[in-house]
Amino acid sequence: MKEALRKLLLPAVAAAVLTAGAFTAQAETVLHRGNGAEPETLDPQKSTGVPEANIQYELFEGLTTYTPDGKIVPGMAEKWEVSDDGLTYTFHLRDSKWSNGDPVTAGDFVFAFRRLVDPATASDYAYIISDVVANASEISAGTEKDITKLGIQAVDDHTLKITLAHATPYFLGLLRHSSLLPVNENSVKAHPDDWTKPGNLVSNGAYQLTEWTPQASLTMVKNPNYYGADKVKIDKLVYYPTEDLGEEFKRFRAGELDVTYDTPSDQIKYVMANMKDQFQNSPYLGTYYYVINLTKEPLGKQPALREALALAVDRDKLVEKITQSGELPAYSWVCPGIHGWDQQFTDFKDMTQADREAKAKKLLADNGYGPNNPLSVEILYNTNENHKKIAVAIQSMWKAIGVQATITNQEWKVYLGSRHDKQFQVARAGWIGDYEDPTTFLTLFLSDAGPQNDAGYNNPDYDKLVKGSAMETDPDKRMKMLEQAEAIFLKDLPIIPIYHYTTKHMVSPKLVGWEPNVLDYHLARDLSFKD
Amino acid sequence: MFHYFLKRLGGAVPTLFIIITGSFFMIRLAPGGPFDRERVVPPDIMANLLKAYHLDEDLWHQYLRYLIGLSHFDFGPSFKYKDFSVAQLIAQGFPTSLTLGTVAMIAALTVGLTLGVWAALRQNSMIDYSAMGISMLGIAVPNFVIAPMLTLVFGLMLGWLPVGGWGQPANYVLPVIALCLPQIAAIARLTRASMIEVLGSNFVRTARAKGMPERITITRHALRAALLPVVSYLGPAIAQIITGSVVVEQIFSIPGIGRYFVQSSLNRDYTMVMGVTVFYGALVILCNLAADLLYGVLDPKVRYD
Amino acid sequence: MAEITLQPPSGAIEVKGRSLWADARHRFLQNKAAVVGLAVLVLIAIACFGAPYFGLRAQDDINWDMIQAAPDWSQGYFFGTDSNGRDVFVRTLYGGQVSLTVGIVSTLVSLVIGTLYGATAGFLGGRIDGAMMRFVDMLYSIPFIFFVILLTVYFGREIVYMYIAIGAVNWLDMARIVRGQTLSIKRKEYIEAAHASGVSTWRIITRHIIPNCLGPVVVYMTLTVPVVILTESFISFLGMGVQEPQSSWGTLVAEGADNLENAPWRVLGPGAVLAVTLLALNFVGDGLRDALDPKDR
Fold it and tell me: How many CA atoms, within 13 angstroms, populate the side-chain half-sphere of residue A123?
């Protein structure tokens, strides 16, 4: 009897539990997002990567922020004035509160900026404002001990004055960089080692942190104190570290994720055929290239050989057949899509591939290389399926013009060491810009850029133009100088540009408000679910 | 036996000490450091980073600093996951790996021993061949193939189980299968081999001749003696399975500690490498000690003197 | 591997001389599964090492019109192509050269070291056993990745070091198993008798102890081969061992696993060859074990 009763009751109870669950699920909208990797830290001044920044932008808001399509708009600063010499920015902060109810003050920004350059913080990204904000590089280097000398002052709680070392036209864009997000001084000082943990973390953005299980998930809920809280539609965000792209894609298809971090290139064909409407594929601020070590012969002293190698790479074929993700074949170093930038190209951009190959063979022959004396080249890459596919393809393209290429893979850190110590001939490389300005690319190859200039490129004309542009206050003239520098660079060819990156997200069709932008910046506060 | 146990525990300290010392200097010889990235950090800022983590001191100072920390169970901060200490990360991930590994090992022992004994009793029959063939597949098809196959079939096509994630009982099923298949292969094959040997030995023949029931002969006498090589294998195997698997964790998104064994090395997260090395070393020593003690239980002839 | 394991299994029976050898061979040949397994292994080895002479495509031939294409028998793409348009069948055969060599060489390295080490520790016992087995515990714990990276950095990319690296980590289990068996065997009457009659320690270990451990050893050896073959692909990942265009079964299967759904042939072809090889090896191993079992006749 009892048993029978239980059997009768059980489904009823289960149904009640289920409907209760369904009810809360309906009341609360949750976004499940694949975020690539476990964040290294949530501390804006200590982090370096994209997965970290994705979370930090949900939690914190800087002086400026971006619209969904990537335009700079006021963030914590309501408005600002720039002095005529472009050296002083005065920001007027809006009335807004931290998630714990404290007002957001100019002092919070002063604290965050000082924290970034303070040698004791040991921030990787301290250099982002070196040479930009007055005295930043001196403080980072330890030659200026007085941290209050940094060019940032709170005039009052609502007024912030930033003094620059020299005019920086992209400064407003730079301000949205994750390392310049504000942090709450009291909470950082109260829990110096644990302030980023749930319960301690105080945020001023659209969301606040509630749970964090490393390697499993990170949960944020709407911050009621955010100034735009009434416009925020999604109640809860769950970010997952998704290291295995193939599995992330499966989870998306099984409905476990609404947005993916990336899409495996092997699956693009399937996606285009079956779920094209859910695929967000757009240009990204980055270039994939092969860097040539100019300190090694024969490639170092013979630009013709470098040109031959660059000519032989069939970028269209590579992008279409190998990477398959809508990447843009690259004939430039600076990637397209930067406001005000007139794209420069290598000379051979408009030649057909057959002509390029013919020219490449001729260049080789002119320099004494041929079937009896083939040029041999070693390609270095870090172990990774995509890099391997590209290296194998390029090896065969070079073979077609009679170049004998061998391929070597190294483990990531060993590879980095080889590149920075110039222990390579040709190496695979990639660069994603920090901010929307050509200098984020061009400064890499200044002759005094140290190990970052792994090509060992040294052209005084190039240096003069890039460095000179920093002193130029007229934005148009400045851009012209940088364009000239790029043109020189593409003549010298210390690198072989291959393609410009694209971002490849799977986005649920239920999600509204997703717009492509070169910075790949998609905040949950701008998204909502269809009813 | 108890005396032996104490002696071995005492011996663990110098063993661990050598592991720590050897690993500490070995990992520093490898090229690359924790803060090397594609984007080179300017020298001034690199100096600040090294200073903050005491990496600017000479190696002996760092070594002493590490030993002093260890003496009060301070494994140091993780260079990669800057919001956590190594001890916090291990403490957070180990329960997951331990639970998953234990369930997988129990499943593997149950299936493996059954298959092994069964195959031994029917030596060279079709049953033997199929039992061994099937169990061998578990090791012949690597887990980086099995795991995505499981998520594809059961997660995506049939929709019976979640593809990834952690927290619900359903999340255990596929990872446990992926983890236990290779163990089943090893256990079944070792059991079969030594079982056949034991079944042919004099004492089993005597027991059978005396008319002892077959079931008792097999379970109480034969299997017990036959477990010896399985126990030898299980010592390190258990230490390994309860510390997780990087492949299984990445594919099923499981927050265990298996990934730290591989990733911390690739990241040159020195303190994390040391943390998992010391932790694993202690577990190996314990598991092998347990295995050695079990020898004495399984075979009274085994004595330690 | 047949040469190594087909030793007289036990000194106690040595008086019987050659008959035992013949006996074992006879019993092995009686075991159909083992004979079939051996035949399959030989065929696969011939196919892999003979690949350059069969008039197949080169392993780095790229067909730009067949990028990741399904098997097409009319064009001779039996296993389809990979994402660079290369023939997976040909790459599997060439890859087999690496995997079979690694499987045999590294397993033998671990077999020889592990068996001798384990038997010595177990037989000598006491402090020596303690010290020797603590050394094994230490090696279990050493961060393997750094070991491989250091070998690569300081000795270069020689394939010989890969065998050493793989053999050096895989003998540990073998040593523990042999030692466990030895602890039990050394109390047997015939060993104690041999000891009492002044037979040298080395001779007891090699002639009496090891032959009596061969059952589990042969079986564990068959379990080591797949581990070794897969370890190779991880070592290549770390930048040691083989590099493009040369491949190996482990690498091919790993690449294929990423394309399980959209290009199943990439894992099915090499995976099936690997599985068949290991299954055949399994039956050969069991056959050897049965043939060598001193009590089993």
Answer: 27
